[in-house]
Design brief:
By secondary structure, this protein is mostly helical. The chain has a single domain (2-175, 201-384), classed as MFS general substrate transporter like domains (Growth Hormone, Chain: A), CATH 1.20.1250. 82% of the residues lie in helices and 0% in strands. It contains 20 helices and no strands.
Length: 406
Amino acid sequence: MKKTFVKFCVLQACYWSFYAALPAYITAYMLEKGMSASTLGILLAIQMGCAFAGSIFWGRYVDRNQASRRFFLIGVTSTAIFGILLFLFAGNIPALFILYPLFGFMMGPIGTTLDSWAIAVMHHVSAGAKSRTFGTLGYAFTMLLSGQIISRFGYRFVPFIAGALILVAVLVALTQPEIEKQDTRKSPVSIETGSKGSMKEILRSRRYLLLVAVVFFTGMAIGPISNMKVLVFESVGGDVSFLGWDAFIGCLIQSPFLIFSDKIRRIKSEHRLLLGGCAALTYALLVFLARAPFMVVLGTIFTNISFGLLFPTMREITEESVSGNLRTTANSIVDVAYGSVANMIASAWSGAVMENAGTGMMCSICMVLEIVALGFALVLVLSGKKKSVTEQPSDSDMKPVPCKAA
């Protein structure tokens, strides 16, 4: 099992390093090629919509066929091909509107599938979260390195770095075990409802649906700022090289939350959602107040604290709310709510708002959206307290039962 864990750590590091080398800088490259912020926003919205569709489609495929490894191999290979084509056609708008949606459709489910694969094989949520730490560290160092390379030599080395990382990921994935064909673990919800892994089970779990609402509005709040980060830096005197330092520092802050996720679980999951939402609100506030690049970086620290609290909590609540044969689908829904769907909606307006009304207005809208997320988190906290009260035994239950005389 230790060897399996180490290999999952390598897979996480390679995949998220690839993400840092290519997808994280592709928007900056498109802007450099002359694309407007409004066009980029529309393109991102379409790409995120396709990522949402891909996550649901491939999530169900993985769950029905127990095919995590198979999809991971298909997904990373096709994503690498589409990603390199994006760089080659970065100045061709019609080609981008064809390639970027395909890129999103294949890439959207990969991170979720990798997490679910690790949890299923190692049978522990915290093991999956700890392996994700290496993805965070890989992302941090690659963002920093790529930023420095791009600022000195331009973007021409990016496809080669990305291709090498994907090659290593494919070779390691071939040595990993697939999920067991029969995963009969059931959650308390599925046992109570008699569900056999249908989508109705997900819709019956109020706790799971509230989780989706919290992460959706949190994603809506942080997505516009993160997607337009290069323009945010430029508005306060920075440039593309700050993206690397921004991601590096933020991910270093995030890592301890993933490493010690089993310790952090001592805090109730509902309270962690509330804390994560507060950190995301602080992110938007600091960027709103920013007058220099370091203020944006400080805000990024808080959004990484937010994700460090939210990610293990998302996986934990999902594992407790649905059965094992819906794991990838349920995790995909949470992830696309936080990422693809939230970013799709946010990207449709954020570019235009930033161009016409500035960064301050965009951040103001983001803060309002995060307050809505905190409202749903508060409902979850209060419902958790109500449940704990109703589950306490009554006085009559506590009375000793008299023994009958023989």
